[in-house]
Each structure stands twice: as structure tokens, then as C-alpha cells.
Records
---
Amino acid sequence: MTKIAIFGAGLIGGSLALCFKGKPGFTVTGHSPNPKSVEKLLKRNVVDTATTSMEEAAEGADYIFLCVPVSLLEEYLTSLAKLPLKQGCIITDVGSTKASIAQCAASLELKGVQFIGGHPMAGSERSGVEAASSHLFENAFYVLSPDPLTPQEDVDRLADLIKLTKAQIIQVDAELHDDIVGAISHLPHIIAVALVNQVRGYNEMNPLYQNLAAGGFRDVTRIASGDPKIWRDILINNRENLLKLLVDWNAEVARFIDLLQQSDGEGIAEQFRKASEFRSGLPERRKGMITSLYDIYVDIPDHPGVIGQIATSLGNKKINLSNIQVIESREDVPGVLRLSFRNQEDVDRAAEELKKQYTVHA
Ligand SMILES: NC(=O)c1ccc[n+]([C@@H]2O[C@H](COP(=O)([O-])OP(=O)(O)OC[C@H]3O[C@@H](n4cnc5c(N)ncnc54)[C@H](O)[C@@H]3O)[C@@H](O)[C@H]2O)c1
Ligand SMILES: O=C(O)C(=O)C[C@]1(C(=O)O)C=C[C@@H](O)C=C1
């Protein structure tokens, strides 16, 4: 039996546990210092066994995943390094920053045990094991940041295990990782939170702001609902990169101030054109929660029962849906439904069927 120990089975740890649990030859153990959390993990069937004892969880483990908040990673790794771990055990983490934990690992004496930093580039604004899903990592990138001295066979061994999540594995140096995710993940979270708080201030004077906040505001601010403690830790840990990125952000804001002061319409349009061109080049199909590569989008009127009608008409034609998601839903205006299927044939059949009644974007 290959034993996988997960420390901190919340959104990410719980999702990993669900990817591994039940696979032949694997047993998954969850750890939490809190007996109630241990009980919850067992009750929700996320792990095979669970314990409040670090020693018990780590004993005989072939792989250990540290899935606790970033500020606790070094403490956990240091404590584990003092335990009699199984020879050949690989310890990895899922923290949103990689440089500090890599430095910590390099400073420890890990005899017969390897540490390989990791970071799945998938997640959600939700937290806790309640939000965990075995589909979370499908088609997402999963970064591994091994120390250059780590034997490649150990990296390959961990990568082989992680492939069970259906993520795409990529190796990135820890410092470079922090630089890049600062720009594409941490800075956007800061901007989303600052924007929501700016509007929250106006809304205190006039609640109409809240009522009129529509798709645009919701699209750019979903991530402002991220867990405050998780994000406190990430931002503090990556503060040096973020301080530089915020200087650049100020320059972007200043550019718009200037364009508006000059009433430079062509300059503003050029900013939108450049942004749109770059954004449309993003790998759209590699998304986290939605797993299928075969999606169609359907414009739907926002009235009760419409989703049921769509599901029924596909069911009547024996077309299997693998996922369904309301992307946008606003009162009185059409929303967008993302329907996911398992193969192109189902996509084509579903599009043909639904086009009879709805606007479909395949
Ligand atoms: N949220 C995301 O989108 C995302 C994506 C990729 C990586 N990460 C990283 O994954 C890690 C976990 O984040 P998450 O989103 O799963 O958060 P979460 O809150 O859902 O899970 C955190 C887990 O750590 C445990 N924990 C919290 N405080 C603890 C403490 N003081 N002692 C022991 N256990 C404690 C919680 O009980 C929970 O099981 C973080 O390092 C985060 O940076 C998050
Ligand atoms: O989709 C989200 O809600 C996320 O915040 C996921 C997200 C991101 O910023 O892309 C957040 C933190 C991670 O470390 C990796 C992914």
C-alpha cells in the first residue's frame, strides 16, 4: 500500500485527498490538530483514516502533502524533519509561494527524505473541506519547484502521483514562481479587494451602488471573497515582489488618469485592444473547477425552470452532461450557462438540439 498523508485537508488538501482516495494500492490519511476536523474528514469520507497525531499521520508515509496556510508550512516541515520518516518519503507542499519553504527545506537535515515544493494553479474563493472537489485540478497547471540537487527520479515519482489529479505538471524555479504568481494571482487579489472596498465606501452613502453592481463588477471581484487568513499569509510571504508589482500597478493607474485628463479616446481604445489581444491568448480550456475540454455556452433568459428545461431536453436525446455552471445570472437580462460534455460528438449533438430554442456559442 502506498500511504499518502495530508496535513491540512481543507479546499486544496481535501481535493488532493479525493483525487487519491479509492485508487487501487493507495491509502490516504488526514491530519488536523483539531479533533472536530478529524471527525469531519472521516464523516465526509474524504480520507481513509484521520488523526490528530502528527507522528501517526507521518508514520510509514510514502508521500506527505503539507496543505496548511503558508505561515505554517515551515513549522510543519521542521517538525516532520525530526520524526523517524519512512526512507524514500517525499514531502511536498501546496503553498501559494515557493521561495521561503524551499529555503527552509534546504536548511534542514532531511536524511533519506526529499522535499519538493509544489503549487497547484487552481483553487477557488471558497475554503475548507466542504469546498473540496476531485475535479479541482483537472486541466490546471501544477507547479513543482525542486531544488536543483533533488534526484530527477524523485521528481518523476512525485509527478507520476500528481498526474492522478489530471493536472498538467510544470517545473518552475521557486524564486521565479513567486515573481510570476505575484503578478498573475496575488496582485489581482489585492486589486479585487481594493476595488470592492472602494465601492463599499460609496455604497455606505448610497446603497444603489450594491443594487446596480452587475456582471463587470462581479467578474473582476469574485476573488475578493478569498479566505482572509489564507490571503494574509500569502501576501505577507510574497511582500517584496508585491511591493514592486504595486509600483508598476500605480503606473498603470497613472496612465489611465493621464489618458482621461487628455480625453485621449484613441489611447484608451488602444489599451483595451492590447489587453483583449493578450487575454484572448490565455489558455481558456485549462480551467480549474470545470473539468471538461468540451464546453458550449448558452445564452439563457433568467427565469425559473430554464436550466431544468435544458437538462431535460438533453436527457431526452440521451446526451450526457458532465458539468453545468451558471456563469452570469442577473435579474431581467440573459445569463450564460456553461455546459460541459465528455466528447466532441456530445458537444455537436447538444449544440444542434439547443440551437432550436437558444443562442448557443460552441
Ligand atoms: N485557495 C486557493 O485557491 C489555493 C490554491 C492553491 C494553493 N493554495 C494554498 O493551499 C494551502 C491551503 O489553502 P486552502 O485554500 O486549502 O485553505 P483552507 O482553509 O481550505 O485549508 C487550510 C487547512 O489548514 C488547516 N489549518 C488552518 N489553520 C491551522 C492551524 N493553525 N493549525 C493546523 N491546521 C490549520 C485547516 O483546518 C484546513 O484543513 C495554502 O498554503 C494556500 O496558499 C490555495
Ligand atoms: O480561482 C481562484 O479563486 C483562485 O484564487 C485560484 C488561485 C489564483 O489566483 O488563480 C489562487 C491562489 C493560488 O495559489 C492558485 C490559484
---
Amino acid sequence: MQRPSLLPIRGLPLLNAYGPVKYGGVYTVTLIPGDGVGAEITDSVKEIFEHVNAPIEWEQYNVSGLTSAGESLFQQAMDSMKRNRVGLKGILFTPIEAASHNSWNVAMRQQLDIYASVVLCKSLRGVPTRHSNVDFAIIRENTEGEYSGLEHQSFPGVVESLKVSTRAKAERISRFAFDFALKNGRKKVTCVHKANIMKLGDGLFLRTFREVAEEYKSSGIEFNDMIVDNTSMQLVAKPTQFDVMVMPNLYGAIVSNIGAALVGGPGIVPGCNIGREYALFEPGARHVANDIMGTNKANPAAMILSATMMLRHLGLDGIADSIATATYDVINSGSVKTADMGGNATTTDFTAAVIKNL
Ligand SMILES: NC(=O)C1=CN([C@@H]2O[C@H](COP(=O)(O)OP(=O)(O)OC[C@H]3O[C@@H](n4cnc5c(N)ncnc54)[C@H](O)[C@@H]3O)[C@@H](O)[C@H]2O)C=CC1
Ligand SMILES: O=C(O)CCC(=O)C(=O)O
Ligand SMILES: [Mg+2]
């Protein structure tokens, strides 16, 4: 059986400085189901939590990125996050058109300074893939770099998109990665970069990583670095060489999706965004899945497992363990497979199977 200990909850290096909000033994948690399949897969979580009597009260905001009309609701959801300090979210759609609003997924990370994205990619017995024994964690800088959102047209036909890199943010994400490695019994941290081309920006990231690595030398954690192109090839060819990986924002988005595909896809990989004050949990590969919205076909596992990471963050380890174990048992038994896993079970079938296992 795949034990839930693979989840990093215990070992999240930075617990919120102020702690979650709890009244009468019940935690209030901000819930943003999101666009696409968000409502369906957060319904799974609600049903499971209700079944185990989890001491969670949801403060739900049906924010949607489909139109910019949702902005005031988005701000209310952020106020709720600032009160509760813990949230669970699905993914918000972001239009591509130049005149449309910027990504609210990104705005959340910046407003809340939830600077470390953690995505876990681990092979599961019940999900046969090309490589077995994949087990690595992606630590992604979540608040700057290519996602700074600063772009302008300096001349018709000429656009400048600013990638902002700061030493302070490179340092804190590198520390997060080493602390994460230490707390989770990991052996090696790999810095992914493109410092051969972006000598100043990614050069700063890499140099800062190496300085931080020196400080952790006595802890016995190995470290190395790899250019992002080679990393992509190595991930597909020999993924077992990776343990903990740390990188700037956009590489993290891409590597998280390669990682998800290596172990079974976006429906099973959990994730979270952590900062000093707030923690927001969401599926690791971050997809809206508009194409299967409302069809009861989505795999809710990634969302359920992200919710168990949240429970552990709240110190509710017992409930987290039982839900995670029940979920992994359903996946590993192979008896209830959603379409992405090659079966024809529905979202509700999967949820019912988890509840039956509890
Ligand atoms: N929160 C965030 O950071 C992100 C937000 N987005 C937004 O999502 C929208 C579309 O994103 P795309 O990258 O095109 O991907 P997408 O939403 O089209 O998803 C890619 C594929 O994965 C499948 N999939 C995702 N989750 C699944 C699940 N739980 N079960 C079964 N299948 C699942 C989808 O059906 C689809 O075929 C864009 O608006 C984008 O801005 C995209 C990536 C990250
Ligand atoms: O926020 C979005 O709409 C896209 C962001 C994204 O792809 C990511 O950061 O992984
Ligand atoms: Mg993405």
C-alpha cells in the first residue's frame, strides 16, 4: 500500500507564522472551487470531509476567471484567505486576449506571498507508467520571474516582457528547498535554470542557490544544478535521478506538468502554495479542464490528496492519514478508474469508493 507519508505536510519547512484560525475546535477554511471541473472535484472533498466529520467549516467563494466581472468576488475571497490563513482551491481560467484580466491564480500567489509551490510526483502501483519508482518534489518560486506580469509594447511589433529576479526571493526559495529536503529525509537538491543564456537573472538564482547550498553542506544533503532543456530530457528519460528540484517560476510550471505526466497525469498529483502567513492547497498540475466540465469524468484524486495535505498542515494528521490511505487504496486497487486512468468510472464513483474504504 502507498502510505500517505509521501505527502510533505509534516515537513513543510515554514509553518505559518500566525497559525490557522480555529473557533470551538473547528477550522474555518476558504474554499474557491474554481472554473472547469473545480466544482465537481471540490464536491468530492466536501462529501468525504462530511463523512469523516472533519472539523472544517468552509467559507466558499465561487470566483470565476471566465469574465473580469468576478474581480470583486475575487477580492472578497482574498480577504477571507487573509482572515483564515488556509485555503483550498481549484483552478481559475485565464483568458489569453491582451485586453483581458491578468491571471487571478497568479494574483493570489503574489497578494498572499505564498512563494513556494510544492508539487509531489510519485509513481503509484495502480497507475502503470513508462517509469516506475519516480519520486521527486518540485519546489517552484511562485511570485516573480516570468510571472511578474510586466509587459509593454515599446514600438509596434516589439514587445518587452520583464522577467524579474531578486536575490532575496532566490534565497528564500533555495532555503525552503533545503529545509524541505531535510524534513522529508530527501538526499539531493537540484537547481534548474537557464543561466547560460540569462546570465544575470538565472545567474543570480543559481549563484544564490549555491551559496545557500554551502550553508547546508554539513547536513549531508547533496546538490547539483541542471539547465532546464537538459532537465526536460532527463525527466523523460531518467526521472529517478531527481529527488528535490528547485527552480524559477515558469520552469516550475513546465516541469510540474512533465512530472505529473510521468506518474499518471493531472488528476492525481497534489500540490500546495506556502508562505510565511498563508497556505493555499490546489492540484499540482493546475488545470481547469473545461473540456470535461460537467461530465462527471474528472479524476478528483489530486484535489482530495491536496485537501489531505491541508488537513495535515492544520495538525489533523489522523483524518489526513485515513483519507489519503483510502484514496491511494482506490487508485492502487485499480478497481475504480476514471477516464484519465484508462477506465470509465465517474467522479462520483471514485468519491464513493474512497468513502467506502474509510
Ligand atoms: N492555477 C494555475 O496556475 C493555472 C491555470 N491555468 C488556466 O487553465 C486554463 C486552461 O489550461 P490548460 O493548461 O490549457 O489545460 P486544461 O485545463 O485544458 O487541462 C489539460 C488537460 O488535462 C485534463 N485534466 C485536467 N485535470 C483533470 C482531472 N482532474 N481529471 C481528468 N483530466 C484532467 C483536461 O481534461 C485536459 O485534457 C487556462 O485559462 C490557464 O490560464 C492553467 C495552468 C495553471
Ligand atoms: O494562472 C494561470 O492561468 C496560468 C498559470 C500557470 O500555468 C501556472 O502557473 O502553472
Ligand atoms: Mg500551468
